[in-house]
Specification:
The protein has a domain of 53 residues. The chain contains three helices and no strands. The chain starts with 12 loop residues before the first helix and ends with a helix. The model has no long low-confidence stretch (mean pLDDT 82).
Length: 102
């Protein structure tokens, strides 16, 4: 398993999240072929966990009830940001290669 460090800075998330739809479009069209299966599976399982009424820490506990939900979102965003950074690196290299071929 790859290390999650260095974790993205909080200020990096808006840009990474704005790039995620472009990554999804390129995945859907087959232009970008590195499917982030772990992140997609983790996102799906995380979503199921968030909507499931049975939590590790019940939300009714004041102050700490949302800790597990917040942790789940944080882990997913970390994985997503790692995959979006890989995508952006691929996109820059791909666009550079296309501009040289013109």
């Amino acid at each position: 398993m790859q290390s999650l460090r260095p974790s993205p800075k909080f200020t990096d998330f808006p840009g990474l999240l704005r790039s995620a739809p472009a990554m999804c479009r390129d995945l859907a069209t087959g232009r970008y072929r590195r499917w982030p299966f772990g992140t997609l599976l983790g996102g799906l399982l995380g979503l199921i966990y968030l909507v499931n009424p049975l939590d590790f820490l019940p939300d009714a506990l004041p102050g700490i009830g949302v800790v597990d939900d917040t942790l789940m979102i944080g882990v997913f965003l970390t994985f997503l940001s790692r995959d979006v950074r890989k995508y952006l690196s691929w996109k820059r290299a791909h666009e550079t290669k296309e501009s040289k071929n013109r």
